[in-house]
TrEMBL record:
It holds the Pfam family SMC_ScpB. This is SMC-Scp complex subunit ScpB. The lineage of its organism: Bacteria, Pseudomonadati, Pseudomonadota, Alphaproteobacteria, Sphingomonadales. It comes from the Bacteria. Coiled coil: none annotated. Keywords: Cell cycle, Cell division, Chromosome partition, Cytoplasm. PANTHER family: SEGREGATION AND CONDENSATION PROTEIN B (PTHR34298).
Amino acid sequence: MDDVSRAVEAALFAASQPMTPQALATHLAHHGGMEGADVRRALRELSAHYEGRGVQLVERGGRWHFQTAPDLAHLLRPVHEEPRKLSRAATEALAIIAYHEPVSRAEIEAIRGVQTAKGTLDVLLESGWIRMAGRREVPGRPVIYATTPAFLAHFGLNSRRDLPGIEELRATGLLDPVDTAMEALMGASDDPQVDQVIRQSADGLAPEE
């Protein structure tokens, strides 16, 4: 293992959160002038080096971090995992945001068919799984929400393309209230923006870029 790989390995072990190759290069530039290409090469080599070991180097949403091998995670759960239970409303809101981001609270409510309490979104913001992604350029300029790299990391996703398909979600029962709400809303809205969201949902919850 060369000096660049050793430096990248040490930086990631000490990091409090996942890091992008650019962030690593910037951090390590103060300690030897490493280039981004060197860091990316080192990340690939380290990922291969740790493959099959108890600790693995993985990429989630363009950010790299070390994690316990999936088949050994159960050994650490009693000590390190803190159960995080979401309400049904929060789970549905998180799913809608993940599949349709960025979306506003009004768009989430249009898909769910019921009002969404502010506290529901606050819970998701506090968890670090969603973020405020700006404001919609429409009257009132409502806040729009999107998922975060922490969401991808928690659910073991490389990107939103790895989200389960609509049939898998239906099998879990997650989409039942959403489907019912959409049937009631189809053709019942005078808001073109809401209609567009409903039509997207009716076509299937497919990940968007």
